[in-house]
Input
Amino acid sequence: MQAEDRGRTWRIALLVFVTACIFWLGASNIRLLVGYTLLQTGTLNFEEYLPPDAEREIFRLLSIISLVVIGSYAAALLSSGIFLATMPFRMQEHGWLMISAILFYVFVPVEAFTMYLDGKMIYLEFFTTTDRQVFRELFIARIAALSGTPFIAGLCYYTIVALAIFQPMKKPRTA
Output
């Protein structure tokens, strides 16, 4: 690959990565806010005041939002790999970038598992006529998945944003 093409490739990959992360993290937050309207505060018990049709609509919204999350995470994962492979920066000189990459990739199995559960919900929503009890069980399984590891992953993703902004552990250039 020529130097000019390589320079253009890492810039495009970075643009795609940042855009996909904005959609992915934004949709994840929306899914969190919408999902927790189903539950009593601080518990895994469902709210009793919600009528079944409203609850079913919330599950439909969660399925649609999960489509955005899965698609944007896949784009972020792919573009990050391309960026890291073609970027001109050396990880030894940019410790913030290395830590960001580690934090991002260490949670890929967690995201894959939770996306599997989201995929089941999407399938049930769009391709079956399942009752809300199945959605309730799947929703609780999704929230309780891996004993809170997805929440820790979310905190790490926001740490990556802070690392990208402040860029600690960056070796100063020598003249």
Residues 52-86 form the longest helix (35 residues). Residues 3-166 form one domain.
